[in-house]
Amino acid sequence: MFLRNLRALLSVVKHRNFTRASEEVCLSQPALSQKIKQLEEQLGVALLDRSHRIVRPTDVGEVYLEHARRALNELEMGYRAIHDVQDLSRGSLRVGFTPTFSAYLIGPLFKRFYQLYPNIQLHLRELSQEQLEKDLQENELDLGLAFVSHNAEHIDYLPLFSEVLAVAVGENSPLYSKEKMTLDEISAVPMALLSQDFATRAYIDSYFDQHQLKPHLAIEANSISTILDLVKSSELVSVLPQAIIEKQREMHAISLVPSLPERTAALLLHKTHYISAASHAFKSLMIDEFMQDGIDSK
């Protein structure tokens, strides 16, 4: 009963209203409200401020929520530990990954994992790096595939390979036969770039700023497939991970001089959370695939 009340409280705080929270915890709104009241009566304090349209935790509620989240995470890890099967005959694995990986890495990678461990149920989520790190901290994920960062102190980053960025051109572009481009050349052509909610875009903007260059931005899109279609069907160029470009039949990767920045792809793990047998198996696969032979050999 007490745990259900805690989960009800956390759901209300997450959604900031009772309607969505009631759907998540499969309770009617009156029943959900009653559980919160029972919890407040047990503690002798008001945990939620209901005086506004958006429900918020009180100051006391914020303090209590910090401990409640930690306690539920520990209980969840305990549950996973006792139900973990070391021979991998069953189990589950929750993995988050940043968007550019979906275009060239996720399919082949999880195909291999599924072939090795067909009884492990996979839960895959495409997320921004910021959200991925947050979900790892809150035990919403077991592992992450993203980039080395130093923003989250409780996360370990296991370097896997260097991701190289390149200029992407389609068959319709007069630049298709080129192998290298200069800054002057790239500044003169119209570009289609990923939107600023992509980590890749931050690297591109930083490169242009470093060289005091303002690109000719014609189109901005929040979809990798849209950028690929635009480049293939027009004279627009883009900047994308070279591994994505090389998978496209009607596209060509051009090196930029000076070189575009590289970034280090990594496997992300929480430093203190329970690591299941499935997580260990996935980590071993990553080491075999990338740290020994490298991505280019696959």
Description:
This is Cyn operon transcriptional activator. Helices cover 43% and strands 24% of the residues. The chain is built from eleven helices and twelve strands. It has helices spanning 2-15, 18-24, 29-43, 59-83, 106-116, 129-137, 183-188, 199-210, 224-233, 242-245, 277-292; strands at residues 48-49, 56-57, 91-97, 120-126, 143-147, 155-170, 180-182, 190-194, 216-221, 238-241, 251-257, 262-270. A hairpin with a 6-residue loop joins strand 1 (48-49) and strand 2. Mean pLDDT is 90; it is low at 294-298.
CATH level-1 class of the largest domain: Alpha Beta
What string gives the helices and strands in order? HHHEEHEHEHEEEHEHEHEHEEH
User: What is the number of E strands?
Assistant: 12
- What spatial form do the alpha-carbon principal axes imply? globular
Pfam families: HTH_1, LysR_substrate
Domain HTH lysR-type: 1-58
Keywords: DNA-binding, Transcription, Transcription regulation
GO molecular function: DNA binding; DNA-binding transcription factor activity
